[in-house]
Amino acid sequence: MNWKKLFEPHILERGYGYYLNNAVNNLEVSEHTIRADVEGTENYEVEISLVDGDIEEMYCSCPYAIDGWNCKHMAAVLYEWSVERGDQDNRDEEESGHIDTPEKPQIDIRKLVQDADINIVRNYLVSVLSEDEKLLIRFRGFLSGAETEENVGNYINRVDDIEYNYMGRDGFIDYDDAMDFIFDLEDVLNNDAQRLIDKGYHRSAFELMNHIFTVVGETDMDDSDGGIGMLAMHVYKLWSELLTKVDPDDKRDMFQWFMDHLDGSIIDYLEEYIERVIMEQFEESEYLQPKMELALEKIRKYERIKDQWSRNYYVGKWAMNYLSLLKQQNCDIEEIESFCRQHWENSSVRGYYIDLCMESGEYDLALRTLDESMSLDEDFGGLISEYSEKKKEIYLLQGDREAYIGQLWELMLNHNAGSLETFRELKQQYSPEEWEEKRETIFEKLPSYADVKQLYAEEKLYDRLLDCVLKTPDLYALQAYEKALAKNYPQQILQKYRDELNKMARHSGPRKHYQQLVSQLRRMQKIEGGKETVKEIAAEWRQQYRNRPAMMEELGKIT
Question: Taking the domains of the chain in order of start, what are their residue ranges?
């Protein structure tokens, strides 16, 4: 299937860049559907429908696709899908680093050059290098066999030129150009910075990477697709690689650069990459003290924040860094405990202390700390649930079966109400005869917000599950449990679909709205009796909504 013809060449190239940068996550493939998330500042959802192995329709939640275009996120997912199923075209692309259309003939480049007249090759090189400064810089580097400060300066100038070329008159890079800007900088990292590292020109590589990192942080651009984060992570990985190769003197200078650039000169969310490098990549003993001082400085800074959530998060983050550094020095438990007590209001610090108590077998102390934490953090449901899980774990370690089961019930009905995992764990504590009575107690006492449907499905109580699904508005629950119910209750499931889709059809919308309706009709066709029901619905809609041309066109695609 030649799916690449569905995309404009520049969109195809951007999609391939996303694929190479591992932006495609949670790929799910079935006979009729390809689904995935594509990572950016937001996670865009992509769904592609297949009929007999061919693409029938594509959906993405990004603004470009909602306007009716096939987008780079769709292309990225298709590249990922093609590679997973072993398409030769995509293996060739991945090995070469280039995107070739299926019609493009395979060329033996080495043989082509070897067979060419030397004067033709030289004249062609002059022509090409005169037009492309980036290639000229690289060519000079290859010829010289060594990079000079002048060459690195040329690379840096090239980065500045890239930024200048993409900026509009207002000094802003808009959405349509943002990822191309990022990809051009990625190209400098992949080719120039990486080559400098490989050749051992560490200071030059460091200077170039730092300049790219600083430029992208200072550039005013529409980063809706998360390109800045992708590029920053690439720089971070190269920093990490470089720091394993440099000599001690260079490493000291690089450490100082990182420390100096935590002064607010780098935009705050990019500072985190520098902080991460400092804490993770400078493990030698000489860096312990300055790292500890940095952690304490950050803790003091964030303790002054008024917002409780932010204060708890950032103080906790740096307190964990500090405690990790204490542990590296094999500090006495008294010193660690003293630090924890100084920052006792922070939930992460108390969590660390609880784990410390559990590691040393101080279970009663851990339980007392958990009870205190549940009181201090009573307004934070997520933390209360974590503390309850810890208590359950401790009772199990102590061999206190009665307290363990009691804590399971506490989790099931209160702190983690309706949890399928807890439900299964609780079931294991009873005989089949006992469990029938116990599960009814659970169903009776569960709070109204708990999702009982998954518990009915687990117990194969399909009549109760059907009743819940039919009473639940919209299609979410219906589709979640359709597979479990459709075999025994096809007519009820089809009627629920019919009712919900008729509600959706009353509202007019863009073509994507009608495509989604038709996609649901196709889903219905797979249920027993579904083809007849879909024909009836389509006929009703053609009569009722005949003045909606986009809807009529989409209905015409139903087979």
Answer: 3-98, 131-282, 478-555
